[in-house]
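ARCHIVE CARD
CATEGORY: sequence design from structure
SOURCE FIELD: tokenized fold
FIELD CONTENT:
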């Protein structure tokens, strides 16, 4: 598992844009300067563990996803379900529908 600055920055930028917020707003929310957010998104500067944690909390996602692109959950009709519980959830839904 390698922390790729560019890949992580692209994920952060994509999450920010999908929420429709500016770099200024994200910087304010996580306590960084606009310049720092810009550099992180462009992969010029890495983010500390604390900043990765704050960004993941702000976007309501896992820190592993922000840093490494690893998702431990799957979107199941708008609900984030842990991957190891997905089959159980599918079976419960199937039993209710049938």
């Amino acid at each position: 598992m390698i922390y790729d600055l560019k890949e992580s920055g692209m994920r952060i930028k994509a999450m920010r844009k999908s929420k429709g917020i500016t770099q200024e707003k994200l910087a304010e929310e996580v306590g960084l300067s606009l310049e720092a957010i810009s550099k992180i998104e462009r992969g010029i500067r890495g983010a500390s563990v604390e900043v990765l944690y704050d960004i993941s909390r702000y976007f309501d996602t896992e820190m592993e996803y922000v840093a490494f692109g690893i998702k431990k959950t799957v979107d199941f009709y708008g609900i984030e379900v842990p991957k190891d519980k997905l089959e159980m959830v599918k079976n419960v839904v199937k039993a209710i529908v049938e």
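CARD ANNOTATION: The mean pLDDT is 92. Residues 5-19 form the longest helix (15 residues).
SHELF: design records, drawer C
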